[in-house]
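Quick start: read one record
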Amino acid sequence: MFDRITFDPQIMGGRACIRGMRITVSLVISLVANRMSVEEILEAYPYLEAEDISACLEYAAFLASEEVRPFSGSTV
């Protein structure tokens, strides 16, 4: 589903990264949140692609849509 988002314990401690690089999803989301344009991000990180930024936003949206429900089972 998120083929550009990778997790590797040997890279950035297993945090969500882009295509196995040492660029985390959280960095890209932070750049977007701080109003950097796609063009500015690509200029600052020329090894990224516009599709990488889109994948980060889609992944963040997926995580934000997660539902948390209280556990109603017995603890006995």
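Residues 50-64 form the longest helix (15 residues).
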